[in-house]
Design a protein that fits this description.
By secondary structure, the chain is of the alpha/beta class. The chain has one domain: 3-Layer(aba) Sandwich (Rossmann fold). It contains seven helices and ten strands. A seven-stranded parallel beta sheet has the order 1-10-9-6-2-3-5, with helices on both faces. Helix 1 packs across helix 2. The longest helix has 18 residues. The two termini are about 25 Å apart. Bound molecules: 2-amino-2-deoxy-6-O-phosphono-alpha-D-glucopyranose (GLP). The site of 2-amino-2-deoxy-6-O-phosphono-alpha-D-glucopyranose has 13 residues, from loops.
Amino acid sequence: MEVIVKKDYTEISKLAAKKIADVIKSKSKPVIGLATGSTPLGTYKELVNLHKDEGLDWSKVITFNLDEYVGIDPSHDQSYYYFMRENLFKSVNIKKENIHVPNGIAKDISAFCKWYEDEIIKNGGIDVQLLGIGGNGHIAFNEPGSSLGSRTRVKTLDEQTRKDNARFFKSMDEVPKYAVTMGIGTIMDARELILLANKETKADAIAKTVEGPVTAMVPATIVQMHPKATIIIDKPAAGKLSREYPEEPRIFNIK
Ligand code: GLP
């Protein structure tokens, strides 16, 4: 696991976008795992710029999003589908049929979850998965206590997570209680992980994730077990780490 501490949010976003763009450029059929939340917004902005200014081509890109609220229609302005469309998809040349966001209004959600897992495999697996982190250490909507081997399924949201996300809804009553989420096992199957965090509010979760023991009570700690994971954070999010971490990725020039 590589930890990179950048000076600010713009630098985090640029590095994450560059890593994703490198994967898109190097594969004939890149499969990218995407995340929602405020943290990856800057990364999506950079990716849109790379498309507009440098012609980063999304025509062959296949995407799988981590999660979606149960009971929220894709056209709802708080659905994760809507978020992705507004912040990325509508500004790049991705094909609609290549976009996958969990369906929170599927009649048979269990069947949908199985289909989603199968679809990831059918497309050759995820090349790189982008992740944010919840204040309680959740990844996607795998709340504390989630099985470290879990697959795509419905999860009950923690009260803290509902409170954190309440700012986006008119009232607390409107905040969904459940979400469909890729499991921790699903996320760990991606060939590469990039976990982003900024702001002091994430410092506790990041300290546990990077330097704490692996535990289902802090789901993000599982990233320590991944063969190719990069944690990219800003100085405030790194505020509770006990060791020093570099500002630049390691570069090996092995010929
Ligand atoms: C939600 C999402 C997570 C995200 C988290 C943090 O719970 N399901 O994928 O990492 O929020 O959000 P933010 O980036 O806004 O802090």
